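Why DMT family transporter? Reviewers of the renewal asked for a concrete example.
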Amino acid sequence: MKKGLIFIAFSTLFFSTMEIAIKLVATEFNPMQLNFLRFLIGSIVLSPLAICHLKGSGFSLDRSKVLYFLFSGFMCVVVSMTFFQMAIVYSQAATVAILFSCNAVFVIPFAHFFLKEKLTKLSILSLIISLVGMICIVNPENLTNPLGITLSLVAAVTFALYGIVGRKGSLKYGFDGVVQSSFSFLAGSIELLILILITKIGPVANWLQTIGLGEFSHIPVLQGISWSTVPTLIYLGVFVTGLGFSFYFLAMEATSASTASLVFFIKPALAPILALFILGESITMNVITGIILILGGSCIQLLSDHHQMKLERLAKAHS
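Here is what the prediction returned.
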């Protein structure tokens, strides 16, 4: 459990700076281009670790595993993270961080239905308190950007599904979070690159412009990379994408999907504070109230998992 909490801490730190780092270079890159670059870098950084983890395991790529990585990569990189990148363009970094963190609300019921993880009364209470905290931070009365909100919530739901897909793959095939992240990111990056290249085809580009999606025509691949953007790009690819997601899946393995989702309960409390110091985004009383509620909900979830693990140990001791 202690090792799992360390994984959660590192994942939370990297994920809480994700929207801020993206916002810093959002004007230099196309959203899909930046998505492709950071996940490609993340997969390359993780590949030596993934190969090391697979040595002596008897792992081999077959049709089933290839299809799995293609699907998980599509869910994460192509679908969820593309909506996420677009949301940051249309909303404040702190707002996107908070709304995207709602994926934790979906992870716990998804884990119950798809992974058969027990849904306790304390887990439900944690969900309710944390959700109220998120609503306080967002402050619905002042929401004036429905597009940014919608994109953030779609990204949240699809990322929650990706988390469950990743956990099921780990249980089925026996690989860890590093392998899961590395291969899925590589597959998703290849799929996204194919889509980017398709947008450069004349008839496709013209059609996208005709229907009002000119932003998605002629998407660049390397344009915008300069000495000023490289440090942020490296941080996004290596630390946020590579290490952040790996720690998240390692936390799932060391604890449970429900406990690992604490990353996204703490993130909306930490991200506004970081956005204040780095981007100068203000913190209101609503945000402070929400932070307190979210931290309280996180503590309840930890208590729930600790109690559940204690019951499981007692059951094993008497079996």
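The mean pLDDT is 80. This is the kind of structural detail the renewal will allow us to pursue systematically.
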